[in-house]
């Protein structure tokens, strides 16, 4: 387990809309753009092997980044015959972007602060107010409404952090909603946010484009 002192002050960032990574969760990535292929190769040469996942800030145009992202450590890596990379990131900690670094790198890099996210490096978080039967009933209605498929047995057996974080990452919420889930200060708040998003969707608040 990494400690705050092990975390670098600068990380390469991958601004991918709708792709959410959370601490202690895993995110598979298919890398094919040359600049991000280079990013993976450079990250693998470091001792920490960290990459920062950050949501682009659409309101500020193509180059805007949200202030908070999450760093993941490359824990699995394979190369296809045509030169693409399949990697898995294991979520380590959220961070706050201090400044984007100008330079000659083909990919973007940011100076970051890990302050305020010490809990991310700790033990599995609990949600003492979690009502699993009620939550799962709402989730089943949501999946039925949008014709989504899942391993219900696996969801039933997952502990609350794995369940809530996995749904935050996998459910087809809008990028700004994903950012709200990332920035949730606690697992309880994240679960409450998911419930709000599900209820909003079931009331018809989400357009069909959400599922594209």
Short structural description:
This protein has 212 residues and is an alpha+beta fold.
Give the SSE map:
Layout: E1 10-15, E2 26-31, H1 34-44, E3 50-54, E4 68-79, E5 85-101, E6 108-113, H2 132-145, H3 152-157, H4 160-170, H5 175-183, H6 187-202
Parallel strand pairs: 1-3
Antiparallel strand pairs: 1-6, 2-5, 3-4, 4-5, 5-6
Helix pairs in contact: 2-6, 4-6, 5-6
Task: Tell me what you see in this structure.
- One of its GO terms (biological process) is proteolysis.
- Keywords: Hydrolase, Protease.
- Residues 11-202 form the Lon N-terminal domain.
- This is Lon protease 2.
- It holds the Pfam family LON_substr_bdg.
- With 212 residues, the chain is an alpha+beta fold.
- The chain has two domains: 4-121, Archaeosine Trna-guanine Transglycosylase, Chain: A, domain 4, CATH 2.30.130.40; 132-211.
- 32% of the residues lie in helices and 25% in strands.
- The protein contains six helices and six strands, in the order ββαββββααααα.
- The protein has helices at 34-44, 132-145, 152-157, 160-170, 175-183, 187-202; strands at residues 10-15, 26-31, 50-54, 68-79, 85-101, 108-113.
- Strands 1-3-4-5-6 form a five-stranded mixed β-barrel.
- A hairpin with a 5-residue loop joins β4 (68-79) and β5.
- α2 runs parallel beside α6 (187-202), α4 (160-170) crosses α6 (187-202) and α5 packs antiparallel against α6.
- It is globular.
- The protein starts with 9 loop residues before the first strand and ends in a 10-residue tail after the last helix.
- Mean pLDDT is 90; it is low at 206-212.
